[in-house]
Amino acid sequence: MSKTTDYLVKPGGKLTGRVRVPGDKSISHRAVMLGSLAQGTTRITGLLEGEDVLGTLGAFRAMGVAMDGPNHGALAIHGAGLRGLTTPTKPLDMGNSGTAMRLMAGILAGQQFDSELIGDESLNKRPMERVAEPLRRMGAVITTAAGGRPPLKIKGGQTLRGIEYPMPVASAQVKSCLLLAGLYAEGDTIVSEPAPTRDHTERMLRGFGYPVLTRDARISLRGGGKLVACEIDVPADISSAAFFLVGASIAPGSDLMLEHVGINPTRTGVLRILTSMGANLELMNKREVGGEPVADIRVRAARLRGIRIPEEQVPLAIDEFPALFIAAACAEGETVLTGAQELRVKESDRIAVMAQGLRRLGIYAAETPDGIVIQGGRFRGGAVDSHGDHRAAMAFALAAPRAAGTVTVSDCKNVSTSFPGFVELAARAGLSINIE
Ligand code: S3P
Fold this sequence. Notes:
- The chain has two domains: 7-23 and 235-435, UDP-n-acetylglucosamine1-carboxyvinyl-transferase, Chain; 25-233, UDP-n-acetylglucosamine1-carboxyvinyl-transferase, Chain, CATH 3.65.10.
- The chain is 29% helix and 27% strand.
- It has helices spanning 25-37, 51-62, 98-109, 129-137, 172-182, 200-207, 238-250, 269-276, 321-329, 350-360, 390-397, 415-418, 422-429, and strands spanning 7-9, 16-19, 39-45, 66-71, 74-80, 92-93, 115-118, 141-145, 149-155, 164-166, 188-192, 213-215, 218-222, 231-233, 255-262, 280-289, 292-300, 334-337, 364-368, 371-375, 382-385, 407-410, 433-435.
């Protein structure tokens, strides 16, 4: 039984200097997956060495893929080719990661061998029929446990056929799962999305030389091709940068530069939302690395105002709401979020967990079935529970600069799933966190 980790965050202070947050989690997972399935050696730099990605990496090692690293974000993967994976000897443990479990399900559905995907307590509560059901339509044989939850048992040796699938939820994980299964399918796999979602899978498949067609909301590929190894430079994760974008916006006197941040337009809802709230963000030195746009972002403290968050921005900022709720709590007036029921099935029920924590810190926060209403106010010190959710933990830590007393955040161990070195990096920017 591992011990829990609590953060004690001192009130006050400001965020200054230059920091580079760790590599993008979504891109890192995909780089490990596609590198493993490619022919030749894929060289990755800037890889996120968080537990989630290390889990994916371990799964491919368990299926016979040779890798050198990771070492300070550098990883060389000697790809096995699409048909070169070998039978794992035990269930593949995806830990806390929904992305890993759902994308791996697509890959494993196309293999000749049987496999099982397991996860931790949080992942075991998350819905998996959203991938299992369309995979079955493609011909996969796959079972979920009670309530459509993990573990997933996947029977190998099936012939997959491409399908046309209109996704009921705007989910990049479902889209990516089906495209990955589509690599193994006969004919075309066509996924249409009800609203734009992150497109890293499509971009990276093209980077590996695999044709993917995107027309309006329809994304398609034809099975039977091959992936050719390439080089990938993973940008810093905008979802990790988000905590500092908010922290520096709300802490008076802050002036912080976030370096080499991925600004893929399917991920930048947080920038648009913060800007409409009055944040002072400046994108500098815009460039492209390996098919993904990147910039340095300067953020200075600003007076924020509450807004009604446009629903079309929700999938484009889906992981940043814990941080955005902290911004809303410091804004003048009311912030209203709707159309965000997906937040209830993330690493925790993020609407419930954040509302509860905000109230503990003296902020008015009312849950609605698909969102939240937050009245800007003043944080008092106090104890909040992250419920094991890495992003809730980091969001509450960044509330401290505006709090009247120490903020204690419990159950922060999972921060290492997405942001190893968070406490040290936050300290460099000026936030004083003690670990208990
Ligand atoms: C992700 C997609 C999103 C996001 C998750 C990462 C991905 O999930 O919340 O953190 O890498 O594809 P959904 O597809 O469930 O919205």
